[in-house]
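pipeline: protein-struct stage 2 | run 1193 | SDR family oxidoreductase
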Amino acid sequence: MATCLVTGGAGFLGSHLCDELLRRGNRVICVDNLETGSLANIHHIRVPEFRFLQADIVEPYFVDEPVDMVYHLASPASPIDYLRLPLHTLKVGSHGTHHTLGLAKAHRARFLIASTSEVYGDPQVHPQPESYWGHVNPIGPRGVYDEAKRYAEALTMAYHRQQGVDTAIIRIFNTYGTRMRPNDGRAIPTFLRQALSRKPITVFGEGKQTRSFTYVDDLIAGMIALAESGYHQPVNIGNPDEFTLLELAQTVIELTGSESEIVFEALPTDDPQVRQPNIDLAKEILGWAPTVGLREGLQRTLDESGVEMLVGASR
């Protein structure tokens, strides 16, 4: 039985990862400071193979048992969170990644960092391959998140090259599913909450900007496949099916049967105009590709979350 440490394990992605690792027969240590994560996401896990450690990884932390694999997911990830916590976001990317890499080194564990498609910024290459270096505004409001992740990638590779840590880097594209926070500011939970509450659905700009949405089960499968590979360079994990935000809003209205109207608001600063992963590398080295389309994934999210859960935070 391998022991896996998951930072940010009480968050949306982290809790799903904990579930799947346990299902596959691993022991899991979940580390979270509960700033954006929630005990509600892991309250259903009541097995002896699971341990919760409340800690802020910006400060040094220690684990008093052997660890075989470290999944470093901790970070504010939505615009609402990283704009509210700009310094903490930068510190999680720097101090938190440094401390967690040090823990992986001490335990001789493989280390996977959850990076993001945001390292590409507002890309000038479309779709985005891992070889593209990005077009990021380091001093804009989104820079605290974008640059924290870019720095964390550089730090990860430095530990690999100089310290011999066995590392992996996953670049995550927009992901959705159950346990999203209804008010986290990202498109799918926002649109679902608005549609189910029969409030106007707010689309930024003209809604022509594109995104590629990955269902959470597909994302977790790709993450574990990368962790269990011997690969060290960044790998995109995302669904290459591309939709405009206006198309997403229309699909949400159709699936929910909502009478919500679509209203348009000003574009946020540095809002990317396109976002689509090139997943040729993931197919080649991991044999991975997404299996759940947008309509199916949205329907699963609705079926598994329930209306009250999706709209409750807005009341």
